[in-house]
Design a protein that fits this description.
With about 270 residues, the chain is an alpha/beta fold. About 45% of the residues lie in helices and about 10% in strands.
């Protein structure tokens, strides 16, 4: 009987470990997925996300922060919130400056529970007020955006149309409205021109899946020349920013897939055009 009990305990432990490993793999592949159903008791959800956040800290700051934010949503008290805050802070410290992970954390706090907001505040994250400012201003009026380049904030009444690659300057007040509608904007910094880079962006857009929110069915990506930034490329969704010094089709496509159709005017992936 003793041998049987040991075998049962050992098998149960393997099942638990395998489950955690599976959760970890899925979390790494798709960090936005809510892996732990809300009906799962907090006594299990919090330590699971905390464990994944600790493991991912040494692999990917982005995935680590995502898990600590999920842990914070299941916090049972001040100690849990403080531990999640420490995990978020550690992830941000390890992140590359061009990844702007702090903005992702701010967006999670903006839409998260009170415990998530408390953890983000305790982590010391400073969030621009543009993230929640969606009022319209007169067309052509200069807008003092808080981030460089703009990622959210006041904008003009009309978004820019059509989507695709543009070869002339567009005022941010127009394309920030596109961001509000869930579109993705890619800014390219080429004061002297860069036909090869433009051709790469155009070819990438052709590989993206059709979009049901665009009347023509084309991907909702707008590529615009823009020089008031510090890097060659900026990938922007409402409240999210990644900066690149050279073309990286995989990263651009991954960013597009992660954030398209998730602007503040979208509901269930249905957005204005």
């Amino acid at each position: 009987m003793k041998t049987v009990s040991i075998l049962i305990i050992g098998f149960g432990s393997l099942v638990i470990l395998a489950g955690l490993l599976l959760i970890g793999i899925v979390a790494f592949v798709q960090p936005e997925t809510n892996l732990i159903p809300s009906r799962l008791p907090n006594r299990l959800a919090y330590p699971t996300h905390a464990a994944l956040g600790t493991v991912f800290r040494y692999i990917s700051p982005e995935h680590s922060a995502a898990q600590w934010l999920k842990a914070a949503s299941h916090a049972r008290g001040p100690e849990d919130i403080s531990r999640a805050a420490a995990g978020i802070r550690a992830a941000l410290q390890r992140a590359a400056p061009t990844d702007h992970l702090n903005l992702d954390v701010c967006m999670a706090a903006l839409h998260g529970s009170l415990s998530v907001q408390a953890a983000v505040r305790e982590a010391g994250v400073s969030c621009p007020s543009d993230l929640s400012d969606r009022h319209h201003v007169a067309e052509g009026m200069p807008v003092p955006y808080q981030t460089r380049p703009p990622i959210a904030g006041p904008h003009y009444d009309t978004p820019y149309s059509p989507y695709g690659v543009v070869d002339h300057t567009i005022l941010p007040g127009f394309w920030v409205h596109n961001l509000e509608h869930g579109a993705i904007v890619v800014l390219y910094n080429c004061p002297a021109g860069c036909p090869d880079l433009v051709a790469q962006i155009r070819a990438l857009i052709a590989t993206l899946p059709p979009n049901r929110n665009n009347p023509g069915g084309a991907p909702r990506l707008l590529a615009i020349p823009y020089s008031a930034m510090d890097h060659r490329l900026s990938l922007i969704a409402w409240g999210h920013l990644r900066e690149l010094d050279s073309f990286d089709g995989r990263r651009i496509a991954t960013f597009y897939t992660a954030f398209v159709d998730q602007g503040p005017e979208c509901r269930g992936l249905i957005c204005p055009p």
